Amino acid sequence: xxxxxxxxxxxxxxxxxxxxxxxxxxxxxxxxxxxxxxxxxxxxxxxxxxxxxxxxxxxxxxxxxxxxxxxxxxxxxxxxxxxxxxxxxxxxxxxxxxxxxxxxxxxxxxxxxxxxxxxxxxxxxxxxxxxxxxxxxxxxxxxxxxxxxxxxxxxxxxxxxxxxxxxxxxxxxxxxxxxxxxxxxxxxxxxx
Length: 192
What we know:
Blueprint: H1 14-23, E1 33-37, H2 43-51, E2 59-65, H3 66-72, H4 81-89, E3 91-98, E4 111-117, H5 122-127, H6 131-143, H7 149-152, H8 159-168, H9 182-191
Parallel strand pairs: 1-2
Antiparallel strand pairs: 2-4, 3-4
């Protein structure tokens, strides 16, 4: 790292180190990148810490479990809360699959290198959607993902209002959370 002034290698417990590292950055420092081979059990937690903070990296590149990487890039009718959460902030794509045989000791699962680029809060700002409200709606929906949206997000608005919103965006009253694209979630949240 002595040859490169724009790279800092940090070894340690990322959960303990990350808050202090992020404090170094200001709103003008949004071009930093986070690249890591992370402990797989921390995947969702690290994405939340990095994406929900005030100073987000521009790019995240992680080696994660292949199955989780595939869930992150999912499209309808296989959407999930992790995919929506990440896709609302940036553009995810799988750079490369990494077979278990590439590691020693060899794990029981295959891995993938995933990149999330162009990270920002533009989705929320441009669409004038409250992040808090957006995540409240999708959490309600995915906490009961086998239920119809009409029923699972009933705590947000009256059933008639939800039914009208679903109809206006071209969805069936029998729609379930995993069937909606990020764009449909945008429209639904705005209408609610």
